[in-house]
Amino acid sequence: MTDFGSGRDGNPATAVENGVVDTVCFDLDHTLCRYTRPGSEILSRAFERVGLETDAPWTVDDYYGRYRTYLEESSGADDLRRRCFADLAVDAGYDRETGRAVADAYGEYRDREAVEPLPGARNVLETLATENQLGLITNGEPGMQRAKLEATGLDAHFETVVYAGYDTAAKPSAEPFERALDALGSTPDRAVYVGNSLASDVAGARAAGMQSVWVPHGQDVPETPDPTPTYRLEGLAELSSPPW
Questions:
Q1: Which of 22, 36, 79, 86 is most buried, judging by how many CB atoms fall within 10 Å of its CB?
Q2: Which residue ranges does UniProt annotate as crossing the membrane (predicted)?
Q3: How do beta strands 115-117 and 231-232 pair?
Q4: CA–CA separation, 121 vs 115, rounded Å?
């Protein structure tokens, strides 16, 4: 575990010094759970389905990188993917219908319940729940995210769930964090947010005035993360002994 030791103003966080944290909120995808089949495999099959066997005009990282751009304007996960893939297809020199066809194939192959908790997730939630109230703040279509929570059995641990991009603006806006804290009767100085994304999770927590715990899960870790999280963990299991 790395303690970057900075609060939202760049000074040691008061909540860390006083030990008053009693609220822990989490991201879902790639923080608490993951698909049992990687997105890259699903996308490859979708390309084959529409006749692009020898060509991969975009990657699953391209999709994930643009995902939150479409959250607020889409009516659901399938609509979001069709909008995103249509734009990715145009960027790659294809027509929009090709992108939509890939999106439809991707949706058919993707089993929303084929998910599993990340190592340590269940134990961490059970441990933290003994002294903290827990919330979930996730960028994602409510039906899809609820299916993941139910499939993994993690849903019972959370006192509130905010589907950012649908209930509120998408992360990294401060709004979903504020919504969760309000539902939990908590305040930013008493709260910590745990996630895997610097751009969405750490930035969003910082915007809301919360401490952040970054768990990169195999991502490349820059020498100086930007924005700077309060803590960086090597793995989720480290939260069994909270660093704050």
A1: 86
A2: none
A3: unpaired
A4: 13
Distance between CA atoms of 66 and 80, rounded to whole angstroms?
A: 10
CA–CA distance, 213 with 59 (Å, rounded to integer): 28
* SS3 (DSSP) at 151: helix
Nearest to 26 by CA among 218, 244, 215, 217: 215
Instruction: Tell me if the pTM is above 0.70.
Output: yes
Residue tagged 């939630």 (tokens): 125
Provide the 3-class DSSP secondary structure of residue 191. Answer: strand
In 3D space, the residue among 62, 97, 68, 94 whose CA is nearest the CA of residue 80 turns out to be 68
Name the residue among 220, 243, 225, 223 with its Cα closest to residue 233. Answer: 243
For residue 11, give Cα distances in angstroms to 188, 190, 199, 223. Answer: 16, 16, 21, 20
- The least confident of 35-49, 116-130, 209-223 is 209-223
Q: pLDDT digit string (tens) for 1-59? A: 555 544 333 333 444 445 589 999 999 999 999 999 889 999 999 999 999 877 789 99
Q: What is the DSSP string of 46-104?
A: HHHHTT-TT---S-HHHHHHHGGGGTTT-SSHHHHHHHHHHHHHHHTT--HHHHHHHHH
* Burial classification of residue 150, based on how many CB atoms lie within 10 Å of its CB (0-12 exposed, 13-18 middle, 19 or more buried): middle
Domain boundaries, the chain: 2-34+115-239, 39-109
Distance (Å, rounded) from C-alpha 194 to C-alpha 205? 9
Topology classification of domain 2-34+115-239: Rossmann fold (3.40.50)
User: Which residues, in sequence order, are CB contacts of 46 under 8 Å at separation 6+?
Assistant: 102, 103, 105, 106, 109
